[in-house]
Amino acid sequence: MISLATVGRAVYIFRKDGALMALDFRIIGFGFASHKGSEQVLIGSVDFGRPVTRAESALNGFNSHYDGGDHNLLQHKILTSIDRIEGSRVFVKVTYLLRDSSGSIDDKFSGGVHVLVFADVSQRPLPPIFVGAKAAAKGATRAPSARKKAAKRH
């Protein structure tokens, strides 16, 4: 794939098959209240303003702590995933756990997680920068010998 330009937050990309993709992203925050006894699971959503074809999530940052004292760390788990896509809205699921080795999740923990959500969104009309860009992208992906042959034909 060849990234051609960034317009706002969207990045327009020509795939090898010549199709144009628009990649957009958002950051969503999750706050986990003080809790003990089990993992915490939250689902939140972000709207991209255009229909979403597919999406992926990535951990952008986190802040974790035990509430009420200092503890050793046995397990720290933060999982992000796409729960579902409904039109222009992407639902993100976060599973969160912090525990020590003294028991079975017997200490209160809390924190926050930020998730970066990437989405392949439906295309808007192409910005003026893309006039003739598809042909330029195809030429840029050809091997040098193929460009020389094409130049000789013209």
CATH fold naming: Immunoglobulin-like
Parts with pLDDT < 50 across at least 5 consecutive residues: 1-8, 136-143
Q: In sequence order, what are the helices and strands, one letter per element? A: EEEEEEEEHH
CATH architecture: Sandwich
Question: How many strand units?
Answer: 8
Largest sheet: 5 strands, antiparallel
CATH class, named: Mainly Beta
What is the typical, i.e. mean, pLDDT?
A: 78
Specify the overall morphology.
Answer: elongated
* Whole-angstrom Rg: 23 Å
Name the strands of the widest sheet in spatial order.
Answer: 1-2-3-8-5
What is the CA-CA span between the terminal residues? 27 Å
Number of individual domains: 1
Instruction: Give the structural class.
Output: mainly beta
How many helices does DSSP assign? 2
Structure description:
It is built from two helices and eight strands, in the order ββββββββαα. It is mainly β and 154 residues long. The chain has a single domain (2-153), classed as Immunoglobulin-like, CATH 2.60.40. It has a five-stranded antiparallel sheet. A three-stranded antiparallel sheet has the order 4-7-6, with no helix packed on it. 17% of the residues are buried.
